[in-house]
Amino acid sequence: MDTTLLPALAALVAAILVLALTPATSLLARRVGAVDEPSDRRIHIRPTPRLGGIALLIGFLVPVIMFAPGSTQTNALLVGATLIALLGVVDDIWGLSPAVKLGGQVACAAIPVSAGLTIDHWTIPLLGVGDFGPAQYPVTIIWFVAIVNMINFIDGMDGLAAGIAGIGATTFAILAASLGRPDAAIMAAALAGACAAFLVFNFHPAKVFMGDTGSMLLGFVIAGVAVSGVMKSAAAIAVVAPLIVLAIPIMDTSFVVLKRLKHGLPIYSADRSHFHHRFFTIGWSQRQTVLALYGWCSLMAAVALVIHFVPYRDPSGGVDPLGVLALSATALLALAASVYLIAVLEILKWRSTPVITLVRGRGARSDEQSEASSDGRKVLR
Length: 381
Fold this sequence. Notes:
This protein is mainly alpha-helical.
């Protein structure tokens, strides 16, 4: 079989499995009591099962085992992904303290890292290549844990984590395939297919939540394929591309953590500072909010793909005007969208101006705010 078809086939198998298994995970969640009940901290009005991540795990594992060549590093990543999903199952059913969850995340990350799946060097355009040396091990563990928690933090609205993770996984699948990294391409494609199918049940109004089982799994696999598919390559975008693709979760988490530290609050304390909470506060519906964030993430992913695929130098070493134009246009579009959304959400404390008031006012409609507050996902994380 043509190996270029394997990622697409892996995505298809993953999607079929998730579609078939998600209803069963809902029944299981109700049997074991893993159900999100309505409360003051939540905006959904119906009890909703939260073990959908089990379907994501199986949907991801089966096609990877079937189609990936299965190197030592890949196998170690699969073991770590399985264990962190099981950690999520325990948390979804019985609950775990933040310290215990963090310790479990570090232990799971140590499995692929000990097998050699590390960020051993950095490659940045114009700056060249550098070697992390022994620091590669703690740096990579921090990378895994950070991405796991970033995806976990954005899992606060119907379809948000699955959609953003799916966009990121699709981008990494394309990059990994182009760089000759078949294992990473297949894993990323399988995860993308699983996320797309899960949205059938998880998009607003959600019938099932992925829970920490799913969100920690998604973050762990994305962190792993970013390393194995892009960061370990000699490509000029080895470090830049993953940071661009994951820019929205990185910015969201960084902003929230810094705000909590500024006010002397624990990092894991709940508040309404996440991007999706801010959209909700100004009156955007859940669907509007999620689709806006999908679009924002897609623009950032497009920038990474254009940087990698569009040549901005001609064969003689000169500047290719069309390549520069394409890169500039994509980057400016992503920048314009970012400035617009930062203004809408008042992420930076600018003085209120007629322009900002007008921009924010377009998203605020009382009927949508009433609809959004009647059912849906968690307000606080």
